Each structure stands twice: as structure tokens, then as C-alpha cells.
Amino acid sequence: MSTKKAAATAAPSPRRRRTGTGIGATSTPAAAVATAQARQRVGVLGLGIMGSAMAHNLRRDGFEVWGYDPSPAARKALKAMGGTVCKSAADVAGRVDAVITSLPSAAALFDAARDLAAGAARGLIVIETSTLDIEDKRQARDALQKAGVVLLDCPLSGTGAQAALKDLTIYASGPAAAIRKVEPVFKGFTSAQFNLGAFGNGMKMKLMANLLVAIHNVSTAEALLLGQRWGIAPSTAVKVLAGGAGGSRMLQVRGPQMENEGWKTVTMKIAVWQKDMKLIAAALKEAGVPAPLFAATVPLYDAAMGMGHGLHDTAAVFDVLDRMSRPAA
């Protein structure tokens, strides 16, 4: 996501009077706690599949949401859900207590960090949820630190469909005090939260999770294609297998998308997934870890790109296996 720097004279809008100090503050009566939470202002930069789902759930949980995305359609969707559209990342930074970033590339993160530093008050906390190289996140963290802004490494585990249902796990890493302050925000868009300690540990756990996802997604396609060739519908197989010893979260989540070209409903684009695959491969190489199962999945995701599935869901590996095993015409 590329952002434009807001004018230096732009001033944040007036804030309502709040109880306590900062996002983590609470007061004793339960009603007062709920009111304080409702008054928290959270910014979201990057309103794609994940970002828009997070914004929606935060709104439902009583947060005020301010956001920016270069896409007019994404901005329109934010306004429709009751959020406030800002003109830039710097504009967002001047209006909120915390910012969530959900970005497609390191370049987008660097642009966002620059603009956030220009518009933020000291003490702003940035919850960085993108799947990016740890060193790139460290570079953004260091740049923001000079402006008194704290960036946390907080990647997410879960698909876009899970994000819509608030069924995400957050792998938080960075300064413990900052993590404690934004725990109420985490709970506004995730179902499970983990503090993994030092900055960068979040991305390490995310790459471990995605390694498993890469393998389980392909193994799901293999099993469901076998069943389909035997006359067992994928939907039936998912229901029967999900709770057994061979079940997995990918079987439950992606299995249904492997029937009737369900991969056209996108929760993770193959083209975006290629970035994650490269990060996993680099991490394995650096750590000297052999990964024959992961290596076996790489050609299938590459083939999906070659077959025109770049904008389709990663469930499209089912189509790759189906086509590569059909008799030649």
C-alpha cells in the first residue's frame, strides 16, 4: 500500500473525554469498562481481505475505526461499515490510540512507517500484522522508534474467511508493556492471543504455521481428489474426515472450497501466497532444516500460477492435481 504524506498543518480531530490513561486503562464498574472500550480509536492501514475483516469486527466490538487504503472501493466499504475514512496514513496516525497495519509488501510497510512517523503523537502503538521478512519489520520498527512510535510484530494465523468470523490467532512480539496496552484491541478482532516475547518471534511462529498450512492444503487436495474419483463428494468427505485422526484445520477451512470451483471465492490469493512460500523457503535454508514435504508442495503452487490461478484461492491446488492426473485427450 502506497500512502501520501499529509500536510504538516493537519490537526487531529478533538477527542472525547475518556476514563483512565491509554488503551489498556479500565475503571471499576463493568459499564464504565465497556464505555471506555467503545471510545478507543483504532486505525487500520490496508483494507484488503484481512484488513477489512479486522475493521468490521472492531466496529462490531464497539471500537471507533479510522482507516486508509489507496483503493476507492476499500475506502467505500470502510465507510459503509461505520468507519471513518482518512486521506492518508499520517492522517490516521493523528486521530487514533493504536494502528493496525495489514500490508502486501515491505515497500508498503516502509511507506506506511514514514507517513505514520510524520503524523503520529509519541507513544502511538502500531500492530503490524503483515507476513513479511523479519529484517524488513525491524527496519520499519527502528524508523518509527525515532519518532517515539512503538511497532509490534504481530502476524496472524487464519484465512480471510476466518478473519470475517473473528477466528484469528495473533502472534504478538515486542515490548511487553506495549503488548499489554493493546490487548483489548487484539480481542476485538481475534479469538486467541499469544505474547511470544522478543520482537520477531511473531514472524517466526507465523512461518512455522504457514509451513504446515502449505503441506496440509495440498494433502487436503490429494485426499479429496481421491474421494471424488471414487464417487465421494468433497463436501461429504470433509464432514466425515474433519473430526477424525486425519482431520486438520485446512481440511475444515479449505476443503469446502475444493468443490465446484470454490477457489474462486478468495480467502488467500495464490499470488500473495507465493510471497509466504519464499519467506518459508528462506527461513528453512538459513536454519539448515530439511523440509522434503514442504519442497514437494512448491511445484504445485507454482503450477497454479502458471494455470491462471494467481487471483484465486490457494484451494486451487485441487484443480492442479485434478488436471495433471487426467488422461491426455
- Principal-axis shape equals globular
Widest sheet, order of strands: 3-2-1-4-5-6
Portion of residues within helices: 40-55%
- Order of helices and strands, N to C? HEHEHEHEHEHEEHEHHEHHHHHH
Q: Which spans of ≥5 residues are poorly predicted at pLDDT below 50?
A: 1-38
Query: Count of DSSP E strands?
Result: 9
How would you state the average pLDDT, rounded? 89
Measured distance between first and last alpha carbons = 44 Å
- The assembly state of the depicted protein chains is single chain
Strand content: 5-15%
Largest sheet: 6 strands, parallel
Structural category is alpha/beta
Number of helices: 15
Rg from Cα: 21 Å
Describe the structure.
- There is one protein chain.
- Helix content is 50%, strand content 10%.
- It is built from 15 helices and nine strands.
- It has helices at residues 30-39, 49-60, 72-80, 89-93, 106-119, 134-145, 160-164, 176-181, 183-189, 201-229, 234-241, 249-254, 270-287, 292-306, 317-324; strands spanning 41-45, 64-68, 84-85, 98-101, 125-128, 150-153, 156-157, 169-172, 192-195.
- The protein has a six-stranded parallel sheet with strand order 3-2-1-4-5-6, sandwiched between helices.
